[in-house]
Amino acid sequence: MTSANSPEELRGRMVDRIIGAGLLRSARIEAAMRTVPRHEFAPAASLADAYADRTVTVKPGPDGPVSTLSMPSVVAIMLRQLDPLPGDNVLEIGAGAGYNAALLAELVGPAGAVTTIDIDSDVTAHAREALDATGYHHVRVINADGAFGAPDRAPYDKIIVTVGPWDLPAAWFDQLAVVGRLVVPLYWRGQSRSIAFTRHEDHLRAVDSQPCAFIPMVGDVAGGERSAGLADGVSLHWDEDQRIDTAALRSAVGGVGTTLWSGVTVAPHEGVDGIWLRLTATEAGTCRISATEAAIAHGPVKPIFPGWAPAVVDGDSLAYLTSARRTANGQRRYALGATGHGPRGHELADRIVATIKRWDGNRAAQPVITAWPVGTEPRVSGQVIAKRQTTLVLQDG
Ligand SMILES: C[S@@+](CC[C@H](N)C(=O)[O-])C[C@H]1O[C@@H](n2cnc3c(N)ncnc32)[C@H](O)[C@@H]1O
């Protein structure tokens, strides 16, 4: 018999909620999540916090957590993308608390192997201790920069990255077996998505991508993002391969904007991440705009979300995704549109509106994403995103 607030009960309810949200359809992953005692990997958290659908801080830092235990629903999504099979040799980048490594050990079984790497020695010490205490002695924990992988046990059947890199380092491609799977929450053009790639002879090809947000990866692959203030409380964030004229954009944002509406509406909490994804496949100037609540309340900009909203920049002009609350048949909805600033702001807003309409025509459609190690000429055409070690090509469907 277990009591209503025992770890087993709370764990069961956590898994039931993830299933109820439609995010867990694999009986094997479900069994692993019902087995691994998540609270043992977060000893400082209350049982309720350990089993809530939230991140749990493992190591705090001055600008936010250095390490966290990922949200259980995100863990489930990424394991589904990875599909670890009995006997697989798996590499994890970002050991954190060691929780996901324990799930991987359950899924690959005694015939498989799990190596997990973390750059922070306090974190690896914690992960080692928690894995030993829960009986996962056979998981190998390494303290190093995960950008270089762990060549001694390569090739891996599966590689999972549980920290947000800006680039795909050559080592991950080199250490992944052909037809192997890489799951990685990659940042590009201001957004972050967990992409499931399959390795082909000379490139990676995405089979799925889902929105997610992770702690940015530090070390060798960090540092490809740029940002600057455009007005009081308003900032723009872009990638180093993009040309951004911040002086011209400051002057654009100082002027009056033009808002165009698409006629498309969404329910509260309905995801619009697919619009951003589609923009990255068609608009070279896609980036992120952020604004404080005060800047939104008093002008000059009103992006759809304060911290994260897609913007498109072209020379001296910019436009961004916006929304307005509407009521239709007594139901609250949000109308989607775009606001443009600068000499070509109207034209850019019109292009975002066209993307909203295309997205609405088939919300599940995703661009084809391929990744080519630098030095290999991409054999496909599409929107090229030049990282330092990888070239991404997005082809809009
Ligand atoms: C979200 S946590 C990982 C969660 C973990 N998988 C779990 O199950 O608890 C991200 C981790 O990535 C680590 N990290 C950041 N940059 C890294 C790098 N270059 N190499 C390896 N680990 C890194 C951080 O120290 C942090 O512990």
What report would you give on this structure?
The protein folds into 2 domains: 7-211, Vaccinia Virus protein VP39 (Rossmann fold), CATH 3.40.50; 226-361. Helix content is 27%, strand content 33%. It has helices at 7-20, 27-35, 47-50, 72-82, 99-108, 121-133, 170-175, 246-254, 273-282, 293-298, 345-361; strands at 56-59, 67-69, 89-93, 113-118, 140-143, 156-161, 176-188, 191-199, 204-211, 225-231, 234-239, 258-266, 286-291, 309-314, 317-328, 331-341, 368-373, 383-386, 390-395. The protein has a 10-stranded mixed beta sheet with strand order 5-4-3-6-7-8-9-17-19-18. A 7-stranded antiparallel beta sheet has the order 10-11-13-14-15-16-12, sandwiched between helices. The model has no long low-confidence stretch (mean pLDDT 96). The structure holds S-adenosylmethionine. S-adenosylmethionine binds next to strand 2, helix 5 and strand 4. Residues 66-70, 93-94, 96-97, 99-100, 117-120, 123, 145-147, 162-163, 214-215, 217-219 line the site of S-adenosylmethionine (SAM).
